[in-house]
Amino acid sequence: MTAIHIENLDVSYGETQITHNVSIDVEEGGSFALVGESGSGKSTVLKAIAGLAPEWRGTIEIFGKARSHGIDADFARTCQMVFQDPYGSLHPRKTVDATLMEPLNIQGLSDHNERIVAILKDVGLDNRFRFRYPHQLSGGQRQRVAIARALIVEPKVLLLDEPTSALDVSVQAEILNLLKRLRRERGLTYLMVTHNLPIVSFLCDRLAVMRGGRIVETADAENLKKGHLQNEYSRELLRLSAPPAV
Length: 246
What we know:
The chain has 246 residues and is of the alpha/beta class.
């Protein structure tokens, strides 16, 4: 079954068009990466799916349900986003407990205490972190909280915007392994944005290379591992990409 269907997606900010006719399909349980240099439009695609880019044309569907423009609470129950900067995405004056409580209240879910304890354990944090503030956590711990916040409403799809790029190299492997385990155990579907092709090899099944707001190549991760990319720009990205922190 197709989990994410994007067809002819054009996203604009005012008079500036950022993406052009972007089309991808991600199967349920799959992990798909959008790769490219800064400004290629890859994060803009995620923002459109998440409802953070109001000016767009085309088709966005999650499990066959069309995405409306703007914020949609029902849609958020199925699809959640993890942002690049875990410190910037967490409210500095809210404890971990309050941060995790908020989506539960929005979605009208009960058993708050049990859900919070369980999700913290699932992302590798024990109960002593529950009443800490973001500044009292390391970068890796903050990103674990951000992942917990996304998962606590039990979505089927996670949008991952450079989920390890703001972390120390020594911590990146821990978060990547966590994401790999969570996908396997929860049957999640991932759409990830990154500029690091070796990370794609570790975490993803397929990828699309973006340049100038357009997809220039779509390939299986196996072809990436073998260096069998067809587009000249894709091969250049692979040559310049850093080794994976895994």
